[in-house]
Amino acid sequence: MKRKQDSLLTKQRLLETAFQNFYEVGFENTSLDKISKDANVSRGAAYWHFKNKSEIFGEVVRMTIEKIKDEKREIMLSESLEFKEKVVQILIVPSYNQIGFKFMQQSLKTLEVYPEFSELLENFRETRARLYNFFLTGLRNEGLTENDAAAISSMLYNYFEGMYGSGTPDEVTKNYTPEAIKRSITIIFKNA
């Protein structure tokens, strides 16, 4: 029992360290050897858990996608929130997990370039499409015309994506507060 628990802790430490390495220096500049060294785990143990860098990268991306999906899903399925409140809560999600969202943004290029990640890329794209469709369906249900719902859904989707974009000027990011987002959504819904 203890051996299995130690193995799970080792794997978790490798995944956490891999996330940091991939986040800080990217897929190209990370190796499984460096991850094992930084995690204070033997090379043998690292290779016992993951056959190569691609496998651990894929696992880190999968875990990050699932965490983000879970955060959004909980809001989307909430029966205690009205649609407008759900939109505000979803748009705030990236501010609570900035590193995870930035990691996914950085990782997107790797997913697009390497064929072994095509399934993960498709999963990521489906997740993004679900968010757009959530906005679209909700806005239709709020009584907006198809064209208006599509236009506002695109804007909300880009608002969400832009919240963790690299190189965003400070004067823009300072408006990524729950209060500012709520104010923006109130203005949009009032004028829609």
Which spans of ≥5 residues are poorly predicted at pLDDT below 50? none
Q: Could you give the order of the helices and strands?
A: HHHHHHHHHH
- Let me know the average pLDDT: 90
Rg for CA atoms: 19 Å
Instruction: State the major sheet.
Output: none
Features:
192 residues
Give an overview in words.
The protein is mainly alpha-helical. The chain is built from ten helices and no strands. Helix 5 runs parallel beside helix 8 (146-162). The longest helix has 24 residues, at 2-25. The model has no long low-confidence stretch (mean pLDDT 90).
Describe what is shown at a glance.
The protein is mostly helical. The protein has helices spanning 2-25, 32-38, 43-49, 53-76, 83-96, 98-113, 118-141, 146-162, 170-173, 178-191. Helix 4 (53-76) crosses helix 6, helix 4 (53-76) packs parallel to helix 7 (118-141) and helix 5 (83-96) runs antiparallel to helix 10 (178-191).
SSE order and pairing:
Layout: H1 2-25, H2 32-38, H3 43-49, H4 53-76, H5 83-96, H6 98-113, H7 118-141, H8 146-162, H9 170-173, H10 178-191
